[in-house]
Amino acid sequence: MSPVFPMLTVLSMFYYMCLRRRARTATRGEMNSRRAIESNTRALPINVEIVQYAKEVLDFSSHYGSENSMSYTMWNLAGIPNVYPSSGDFTQTAVFRTYGTWWDHCPSAQLPFKRTPPTFCSQDYVELAFEEPVYPTAVHILETYHPGAVVRILACSANPYSQNPPAEVRWEILWSEAPTKVNGPQARQFTPCIKQINFPTNLIRLEVNSSLLDYYTELDAVVLHGVKERPVLSLKSSMIDMNDIDEDEDEEKYGCGMDTINKQFSIVTLRELPTNGYFDKLPYELIQLILSHLTVPDLCRLAQTCKLLYQHCCDPLQYIHLSLQPYWARINDTSLEYLQSRCTLIQWLNLSWTGNRGTISVSGFSRFLKVCGSELVRLELSCGHFLNETCLEVITEMCPNLQDLNLSSCDKIPPPAFNHIAKVGSLKRLILYRTKVEQTALLSILNFCSELQHLSLGSCVMIEDYDLIASMMGAKCKKLRSLDLWRCKNITESGIAELASGCQLLEELDLGWCPTLQSSTGCFTNLARKLPNLQKLFLTANRSVCDTDIEELAANCTHLRQLDILGTRMVSPASLRKLLESCKDLSLLDVSFCSQIDNRVVLELNANFPNVFIKKSFTQ
């Protein structure tokens, strides 16, 4: 018999055991929420429907715009539509920071976490508050440019305008779907069929994935329809399909799974479980390898099948890399406490989006790191609004081997807290996008963290003198490979010269929306001559970029892969042809709103250089 067949038998038994366990433990109450029931229900018209636009934007993970402006920011989602039903690129809309897969192919791109459920694909989010709590009957999303990014809509039980904090914060998924490619960038009203929930809400969260889009998606407004009284359901059928216990159900994927962690990871003594079957005959390492492909909730379920698999599922080797971001809605202090004994060897930890609205406390986070921080190399804390100075102090004390720290959009951390980061001299990657880091703290970090290779300071508005920061980088951070200075407000040719002279290993540089840089000073030609390893250069919205700059890039930066010169008026088709002929690896060229590059030129360039994605945006 072929050696493949025993392995297939083992895998078949493994999946059968998981399904058997789930089928045995499922209750009638759980099954009633499955889609076979939902698809055969209808709400009786006992209430008058309330229609309301978002009153306020409460939180978001990123946006294209500035912190001190309304253009292209998430705050444009509050109120009535500004643009819809018009289509095109408008500053009055809400735009996230990224689109496509370009950011996954940059020198700064990070390796993904293993064990991330394939059904979790969210990249960004925005949370909206409405005036009146209602039982949702519909959600309308007005998309005005490149629609199709929304992948999840959630509702929260907490009322953001209530004076009394709730004892429990619940999130329910109203709708979820994989990213889809929408034909054409035209505006549309997106109204997915949503699930009914058993609590009123005035807090709606949209999660997006823009990886399939050809350009930035733009959202104009969100409309919530609902009723004040809970709808009465009329069942047409009580038949339950076997698909109702399928792995694709939202409550299992994002809800009950983490509840299972909280309940079952606390078990100290096992009840009598079935025998280990043929797993006793497999090498320990082989079982570990098989289990390494399971998500965290699946490990919890499998731990109930037999004593042997319980031991494997609790082995710290299964938690070397752990991402809890897909389960952000259910992670709390209890979850972290139950995971402590299993995470003593953890090296990569992703707690992005978790802990908000009091679900993770400073003390709970600190206790976890004191037990599990000694081996940490990578720590993702994006949008962790529970973080304060104490948390950063604990990180620097308990994580001596830390090399990668992501604090993106942690805008609640007070400025003095960032001084603690300077104690982590081993840092190689630091993401401070949309934080309140100040100049003094940043200078200290740059002085003591000389191993830095990747640094993001995009939209850090508290820094007063970027020239001084650039000078310190040039003097201390010789190993820097990627630098994000998106929307830094005051860097000049002096700072660019210091940076280019000292950081000659730079492969990625984002100077988008830096209004104080002028081509006439020679800053861009200096960059091209000093940084021959550049693969990504964003000069977004710098109207002074000219043919000389493009020709210098063509002559010196032949490894260039991505170039954004959106908005320039001074670049001609001839210089772009030189660039495309010289930079054979170029894959992205954004010439949106470049006045000399019309659609005819773009079509010609596309025909001659078919491997390059040449983007030309428009406004109607």
Structure description:
- It comes from Ceuthmochares aereus.
- Keywords: Leucine-rich repeat, Ubl conjugation pathway.
- Residues 276-331 form the F-box domain.
- This is FBXL4 protein.
- With 620 residues, this protein is of the alpha/beta class.
- It folds into 3 domains: 49-227, Galactose-binding domain-like (Jelly Rolls); 319-463, Alpha-Beta Horseshoe (Leucine-rich repeat, LRR (right-handed beta-alpha superhelix)), CATH 3.80.10.10; 485-619, Leucine-rich repeat, LRR (right-handed beta-alpha superhelix) (Alpha-Beta Horseshoe), CATH 3.80.10.
- It is built from 17 helices and 23 strands.
- A 12-stranded parallel beta sheet has the order 12-13-14-15-16-17-18-19-20-21-22-23, with helices on one face. Strands 2, 3, 4, 5, 6, 7, 8, 9 and 10 form a 9-stranded antiparallel beta sheet that branches.
- Helix 10 links the parallel strand 14 and strand 15.
- Helix 14 runs parallel beside helix 15 (547-556).
**Strand segment count:** 23
Domains, number: 3
Shape: globular
The tally of helices reads 17
What name goes with the CATH superfamily of the largest domain?
Galactose-binding domain-like
CATH topology of the largest domain: Jelly Rolls
Order the strands across the largest sheet as they lie in space: 12-13-14-15-16-17-18-19-20-21-22-23
Radius of gyration using CA atoms only: 26 Å
The main pleated sheet reads as:
12 strands, parallel
Quote the distance from N terminus to C terminus: 67 Å
What is the helical fraction, as a range of percent?
25-40%
CATH class categorisation of the largest domain: Mainly Beta
Low-confidence stretches: 1-8, 22-41, 234-258
Q: Which CATH architecture of the largest domain is right?
A: Sandwich
Strand content: 15-25%
The average pLDDT score comes to 88
